[in-house]
Amino acid sequence: MHATREPYDVLVVGGGVIGLVTAWRAAQRGLSVAVADPAPGQGAARVAAGMLAAVTELHHGEEALLRLNLASAARYPAFAAELEEATGRHIALRTCGTLAVALDADDRAQLRELHALQQRCGLDAEWLSGRECRRLEPMLAPGVRGGLRVDGDHQTDPRRLATALLAACRRAGVALLPARAERLLVRGDRAVGAELGGAAGRVSAGQTVLAAGSASGLLEGLPDAVRPPVRPVKGQVLRLRVPPAYAPFLSRTVRAVVRGGPLYLVPRVDGELVVGATSEEAGWDTTVTAGGVYELLRDAHELLPGITELPLVETAAGLRPGSPDNAPLLGPTALPGLHLATGHHRNGVLLTPVTGDILAEALTTGELPAPARPFSPQRFTSSSVLQEQPA
Ligand code: GLY
Questions:
Q1: Are 248 and 363 part of one and the same domain?
Q2: Which residue has the CA at smallest separation from atom 4 of ligand 1?
């Protein structure tokens, strides 16, 4: 027989940055909260570069997502300060801006189109000649044809973010349950907690938040009508080190489209240089491949020829939680007692502060705040009747 733990107000399934920020914010509002994850703080954010790129990652048709991204980016300075105050840990928020550059005529045309979209959306982005780009970042290749200077797109260190959120949860009294949630418990027409793996047993909760990233759709016991349509989108990422003799190799994040694929280089104050990322529909595979590393280095070398001098210290692959419209699924589902906080795709780190605030509001009031309404999971809910399932 498995033990049944005492009921919590909220059980969060998944201890990545999205699950942890949800738990922290909910605990701050006086709710009793548990997080179920065998390795909290070790999700996709361990691989992510941490760009806060609301403006440079803008895409046609994603204006509602842009507003959410901007709202979250605006919260970052206060969020970072609050986390530091609560835990004594900083998340290396670097307000360095971003330069998006073009290497050939096709890239340049694509960047011009992005600039026009940014202008239509009222965003700050300045077109620079190739020479002006190289004046800002002298390590850029002489072939750079032009670029966009976006001083409002910053960066943070996602590993520090995960560590700080974990510490904040501990200090706020969140119970960290080191086990995987195997099955959602549904009684009558309500979610009432989850069955955890191993000897952990059943955890009862008034409300359950499914925040398991790309694995959110895999939880057993989820009625099909509320199963989130998320899928893994693999990203391979490299970490290099800039020795003092080469510093500052870059002074801001540099992005480019090379041969149609996005490339970015994110320089940290501590000398780490993150190069990303592939985007692969490869199921649950997290193998780092020779081809992935080759392509990233080949493209990075074309952009910054000096990069081959730097030590390569780490390669990694993670899984973004992709959703059908590239936007997150936030808040109550059609199954009472079940909320979602998943599907953040390319914007998980950026959307961390606003997700915590939105979920805390939904958990305490039952309502989604107005800016979050376009991201209700119910936009994907099928009309099938929710089946009653035994708890
Ligand atoms: N936002 C960067 C990425 O997902 O690769």
A1: no
A2: 346
Residue 195 predicted with pLDDT over 90: yes
- Identify the CA nearest to 63 among candidates 384, 308, 338, 326: 326
Are 361 and 248 members of one domain? Answer: no
Confidence of residue 6 (pLDDT cuts 50, 70, 90): low
Residue to probe by mutation, ligand 1, list 153, 156, 264, most atoms within 8 Å of CB: 264
Pair (170, 217) in one structural domain: yes
| 372 in any annotated domain | yes
Domain that includes residue 246, residue range: 98-151+232-322
Backbone φ and ψ of 28, nearest 5°? -65, -25
Look at the chain and report how many structural domains it folds into. Answer: 2
Closest Cα to atom 2 of ligand 1: 346
| 103 within a domain of the structure (yes/no) | yes
Structural domain includes residue 81: no
Q: Supply the residue whose CA is at minimum distance from atom 3 of ligand 1.
A: 346
Within a 10 A sphere around the Cβ of 365, how many other Cβ atoms? 10
Task: Assign residue 18 the CATH number of its domain.
Answer: 3.50.50.60
Sequence-distant (6+) residues with CB within 8 A of 375 are 64, 68, 327, 328, 329, 330, 331, 368
Rounded to 5°, the CA angle 42-297-126 comes to 90
Atom of ligand 1 nearest to the CA of 53: 1
Protein residues whose CB sits closer than 6 Å to any atom of ligand 1: 51, 57, 235, 276-277, 320, 346
What residues contact residue 365 under an 8 Å CB cut-off, 6+ apart?
Answer: none
d(CA 210, CA 207) in angstroms, rounded, equals 10
In a domain, 90, yes or no: no
For residue 1, what pLDDT is reported?
A: 44
Q: Which residues pair with 341 in a beta bridge?
A: 330
* Same domain (yes/no): 270, 178: no
Q: What is the pLDDT of residues 213-245, one digit of tens each?
A: 999 999 999 999 999 999 999 999 999 999 999
Q: Are 250 and 312 in the same domain?
A: yes
Q: Give the number of the atom of ligand 1 that is nearest the alpha carbon of residue 235.
A: 5
Is the pLDDT higher at 262 or at 344? Answer: 344
